[in-house]
Structures are given as C-alpha cells and as structure tokens.
Design a protein that fits this description.
- The complex is a heterodimer of chains A (about 270) and B (about 220).
- With about 270 residues, chain A is of the alpha/beta class.
- Chain A folds into two domains: about 140 residues, D-Maltodextrin-Binding Protein, domain 2; about 100 residues, Periplasmic binding protein-like II (D-Maltodextrin-Binding Protein, domain 2).
- Chain A is built from ten helices and 14 strands.
- In chain A, the strands form four sheets. In chain A, strands 8, 9, 10, 11, 12 and 13 form a six-stranded mixed β-sheet that branches. In chain A, strands 5-1-6 form a three-stranded parallel β-sheet.
- In chain A, a hairpin with a 3-residue loop joins strand 2 and strand 3.
- In chain A, helix 2 packs across helix 8 and helix 2 packs antiparallel against helix 9.
- The radius of gyration of chain A is 21 Å and the shape is globular.
- The termini of chain A are far apart.
- Chain B is mainly α and about 220 residues long.
- Chain B has one domain: MetI-like fold (Orthogonal Bundle).
- Chain B has eight helices and no strands.
- Classes of the chains: A alpha/beta (about 270), B mainly alpha (about 220).
- The interface between A and B is large, with 40 and 38 residues.
C-alpha cells in the first residue's frame, strides 16, 4: 500500500516536471509567442485535425519562418490580453486585431487586412436597417471592436434604442442565443460572421449598413518597436515571395493584403 | 472534425484538469490543517492573521485570485514572467484558496470533539501531541469526510477557471471546438467527462468513508 502510493506520487511529480518543460517562455529570441483567442475562426481556432489553424496563425507562422524563429501559438483569455502582453508572456497579438480606436495603446505593424463590424440577424426577423433594431436585444463580445464602436458617442443614440446590449464572453454563445431566439442580433466582425453562417446562408443575413469599417494589424507592447520592425519587414518579404497571397487565397478566396507594398504593386 | 480527434483533444485538456485537481489537493489538504491549527492557536497575532487570510480567500472570487497570483509579480514587483509560470500560478492560487475552506472544515471537526476525549487521554498518560495525532485527528477525519467530498467535487468543476490565465484545461478546449466546429457535441462530451471524473471521485471518497466506519 505504502509502496504503491510512493510510486504514484513519483509518477505524478515526473509528469508535472515534463509538463512544465513543455511550456516555453516568451523571450522573442528563439520563439515567437503569438497570443490569440482560440474561439475566433477563421483567424485562429482549432482545426479539423485538432491543431490550431487560421488565417492569422498561418501568416504568423510564415513570418516566424522568415525571422528564423519557432512559432508558438498561445491561446489567451481575451480580457487578459493587455496583461499578457505587458508582462511579456506573449510577444504579440495577431488575431483579427483591430487598429481603429487602439492606435495609441499598442505598437502596430501596418494594417494588413481590411475588415468591418456589422450586424447579423436571422433572415426571417424582419430587421433591415439600424432603425429596426429599436427595442431589440443585441449581443456583442466583451472587449471587442464592435463593442467599443457601439459604446462610442457616434452610436450612443443607436445603442440607447436597443432593449439591451448584451455583452457575451464569446461569439459562440451569442450564436446559440441568436439561434434560440434569446437575442435578435449580433454585432461582430464581418469575416467571423461569414465563417459562422457558412452553410446556413439562408437562415441569417448581414445588414447593408455597417457599424464601422476598420483595419487589422499585428499589435505589440508599447515601446517594443524592435520586434515590430522585424515582423513588418518579414510581412513585406512574404508579400514579395507570394506566400501572403497564397494564404489569403486559401482562407478568403481573394488577395486580402492592404499593406502599402501590396498597393504599390497593384498600381 | 472527426469524433475521435475531438475526444483526443478533450482528453489532452482532461490531463491538465486532472493535474490541477491532484496537485491542488496534494498541497491544500496539509496546508488547510496548518491554517486550522493556527486559527485555533493561543497566539492572538497568529489567530487574527489566519482569520483575515480565511476571510480574504473566501470573500474574493477565485478568478481574481488567479489573476493576482499570476500577474501580481509583474505588476506589483516588476518581475518579468515566463509562460512556464502559468501552470504553477494556477496550482498556487487553487491551493491557497482551497486551504482556507479546508481549514474551516478541519476546525469544525476538531472543535466538535468532546472534552472527555482529551481528559481520558491525559489520564492514560498521552502527551499533547500524541493526543492530537492518535486520538483526535483520526476521529476528526471520520467526521469531516462528507464535507471534504463536497469541496473536492467543487474543485473538479472549478478547474475550468484556470483559463482566465490561459491554462488550457478541458472546458476551454470544449468551448474552442464548439466555436470552430459550430457544434454542441463538444459541450455534451465535456459534460460526460466531468461527470465520469466526479463519479470516480465520489466513489473513492465513499469507499474511504466506509473503511473508516469501524465503530459500528
């Protein structure tokens, strides 16, 4: 009895030992630790094979390869992203990360993709415009660009007309709510919306009016311009060798690049 | 995603959950006893210190405590963190939190012992340490097992809080799969995993309880 319990404690301690070794530190020297929200398809999520995948993660992997670093995907709690970045446990945030409204809070690369915040409703809901949203329940993800926009002065009147602006932890819960009829609309990113309604285009629709048009960039801790410049240069390299366009085609079916090097090439 | 892939991902998360669970119990059960003894100590300073400790641990959310333990060293002391600290921060926060609850359970058990037990032991020539270890503690453990089982089962379900500092345990995996696969199946599977885990723990605790039931 005593022998087996000593043995099991030993096995446990060895397991813990190995476990802590499998974790890596974010020093930005041999690894590039990418912080992302794993509930955020198609930018970063768990793929068919159970491994992390997504448009942004593929780009990050391509950039890390150019920099000669090992890419490490670190799923984070979205609320804690600033703390993670400040304390150095992640090197950067690459996750459909909206620059607009956050210009001064992070060091940014150039915007690499256009995006926008929209309103998604059920197609049989009869909601066509923002005005129809009066008295309706609208869900939005906590700490998201859509929430920031709706809480700004520009939309104070619209937001006030809602029966409730329901802040949810993650969009998946909001979709369950929308499907079940507990909320009438979701305010979210256009590409996330398109991914979610893929295959169910008949039951959902995106309003023609947009909340805001915006751009995505890679965010770094304020003052960390060194790594920012490296990543920016690597981004330009993967545009030049065609990797960027390839990844973009794969995920969205078009070349989504809006970096200045892409635009000058297009002219 | 194939069902087998989903199960293996959930299984990976389960390993983390079980590790958190086991290590927390390993540290918090002894720590709780020490806290309980300090709480009942004759030293007034020690007594009020543990009172405050228990009050803070029970009075603030575990999620907040996790954030403080993990990010505190950086924000309060300026020490840069390494990602390897994540898991240990979870163990520290959980152990310190559960020790407070266990301490009060131990105290309840110890204080319920009739004075006659102490008197009889003294007459028989036991020393104070012997009285506690050989006479009182075994009876206390018998009495508090049901309350301990309650806390232990709560602990299993609390492991899902670990993701607030980005430790990917099972429920987090279930949520991530649900959002990428647009399916509820992973939640149902996670529920079954939790239930089976709890069932095993409850069974083990019941067996221990029966084994200790030697006076009847």
């Amino acid at each position: 009895m005593k022998k087996t319990s000593t043995l099991s404690i030993a096995v446990l301690l060895i397991a813990v030992f190995l476990f802590s070794f499998s974790l890596v530190s974010a020093d930005g020297e041999t690894t590039l630790v990418v912080g992302f929200d794993q509930d955020f398809p198609p930018y970063g999520y768990i793929g068919e094979d159970g491994e992390f995948t997504g448009y942004d993660l593929d780009l990050a992997a391509a950039v890390a390869e150019k920099l000669g670093l090992e890419v490490v995907y670190q799923p984070i709690a979205w609320d804690a992203k600033d703390m993670e970045l400040d304390s150095g446990t992640i090197d950067l945030i690459w996750n459909g990360f909206t620059i607009n409204g956050r210009e001064d809070k992070y060091e940014w690369t150039e915007a690499y993709k256009d995006a926008g915040q929209i309103i998604l409703v059920k197609s049989d809901s009869g909601i066509e415009t923002f005005a129809d949203l009066a008295g309706k329940v609208v869900a939005v993800q906590t700490d998201s660009a859509a929430l920031e926009a709706l809480e700004s002065e520009d939309f104070a009147e619209l937001t006030a007309s809602f029966a409730d602006l329901l802040v949810v932890e993650q969009y998946n819960a909001a979709f369950m709510d929308l499907e079940a009829g507990a909320v009438d609309a979701i305010a979210l990113d256009i590409d996330v919306a398109n991914y979610q309604i893929e295959g169910k285009e008949d039951s959902y629709k995106i309003l023609d009016e947009w909340i805001q048009e915006e751009q995505y960039g890679v965010g770094f801790k304020l003052g960390n311009t060194e790594l920012r410049d490296k990543v920016q240069a690597a981004l330009e390299e993967i545009v030049a060798d065609g990797t960027f366009a390839e990844i973009s085609e794969e995920w969205f079916g078009y070349d989504s690049c809006v970096l200045s090097v892409c635009q000058s090439a297009g002219e | 995603m194939r069902f087998s892939v989903m199960l293996s991902k959930l299984g990976e998360g389960m390993v983390t959950s079980v590790l958190i669970f086991t290590l927390t119990l390993l540290f918090s059960l002894p720590l709780g006893l020490i806290v309980a003894l300090a709480r009942m100590s004759k030293n007034g300073l020690l007594r009020s210190f543990t009172r405050i400790y228990i009050s803070v641990m029970r009075g603030t959310p575990l999620m907040l405590q996790l954030l403080v333990v993990y990010f505190g060293p950086y924000y309060l002391l300026g020490i840069p963190l390494s990602s390897g600290y994540r898991f240990w921060a979870v163990i520290i926060a959980f152990s310190v939190n559960y020790a407070a609850y266990f301490a009060e359970i131990y105290r309840g058990g110890i204080e319920s012992m009739p004075a006659g037990q102490y008197e009889a032991a003294r007459v028989l020539g036991y020393s104070e340490t012997q009285i506690f270890l050989k006479i009182i503690l075994p009876q206390v453990i018998k009495r508090i097992i049901p309350s301990i089982t309650n806390e232990v089962i709560t602990l299993i379900k609390d492991t899902s809080l670990a993701f607030s500092i980005a430790v990917t345990e099972m429920f987090t995996v279930a949520k991530a799969i649900a959002s990428s696969e647009k399916t509820m199946v992973s939640y149902a599977a996670a529920g079954v995993f939790y239930y089976v885990f709890n069932f095993i723990v409850a069974f083990v605790m019941e067996t221990i309880e029966k084994k200790l039931n030697y006076y009847r």
